[in-house]
Amino acid sequence: VTNVLADTIPGIRVVKAFAQEGRESERFRTANRHNFIANDRLNRLWSLFTPTVTLLTEIGLLIVWAFGIWQVSRHAITVGVLTAFVAYIGRFYTRLDSMSRIVSVTQKAATGTRRIFEILDHVSSVPEAKNPVPLDNVQGRIEVRHAAMRYGNRSVIRDLSLTIEPGEMVGLVGHSGSGKSTLLSLMARLQPLQEGDIVIDGKSVRTTPTRELAQHIAIFQQHVHLMSRLRVRELLMMARFPYHRGWPKASDHAVCQRMIEAFNLQGLAERFLDTLSGGQRQRALAAMVFAQDTPTILLDEPLNNLDMRHARELMGILRRAVDEHGKRIVLVLHDVNYAARYADYVVALADGHIRCHGPASAVLTAE
What we know:
Elements: H1 2-8, H2 12-17, H3 21-73, H4 79-120, E1 142-151, E2 154-164, E3 169-173, H5 180-187, E4 195-200, E5 203-204, H6 210-214, E6 217-220, H7 232-238, H8 250-262, H9 278-291, E7 296-300, H10 308-325, E8 328-332, H11 336-342, E9 345-350, E10 353-359, H12 360-366
Parallel strand pairs: 3-8, 3-9, 6-7, 7-8
Antiparallel strand pairs: 1-2, 1-4, 4-5, 9-10
């Protein structure tokens, strides 16, 4: 029942948009009916079991009393012995009844424990390196060497090689399903690389601790869950917490304030995320990524939900981050014109491999 609700309620807009209220209500009623039948069967069983146990124990006590009185009448035992024996067997039956009820509680506890250990024993698809190598004195040269990735039998990236130099903005373009988002996830090590390697300044991401890699690479994803009861300012502060201990420093507050001003979020800083429009949430997430202040920034379709003015402002921020601060930015875009206008280098992907690459103007002509 909970699973049905957890699946339906977050998607209530889709349900309303396609007038599927009746279907979802029936799905909930079906799950609830199964739950009711299972509980009804369980309650019937226990309603029969408990009186049966009580009846048997009472019959046992009656037999003990009858036999004991007969023994007292024959002077085989005293009344004190009979009273003591009845008290002992009463305690025994009480414990026996308690043990019979433990079975139900134990089964419920065992089910809950099994679910807990399924989570605790879950092995990450991106395991930590056995012999981690720290990233020291990062200059930021990223090399993708013959990378390959499959989802089941479908090959998403095939023998892809790419080099990104420090202080360079690279635009990734291509049709949906060409492997752009997957390539960014592999760079940030959100997914395991199946073949080939990705190297930062000569050190493989396979041997880099995940937490340390997150300090050097920030990623903006298309579909990400933002905790709705957070304010925009609190969201930006989350980007600053992992990299120092204790409470936020004055410099952290200063960085967040600069991001609020740069992304034109002054009027939204104290608002909750669930009250923002799609474009406002997009800008808040982009500001969070920049607040991490990492040398490398990966952005997957950052212009979605943005109007032309805010799209141009964001691209201007990216361009200044490269030109003035030496950031390395990998940008996934569907609009080739934006890539040609702002990126230093454009890579066009098709079916998991590079179809063409080079200066923006050359790729735009080829497209």
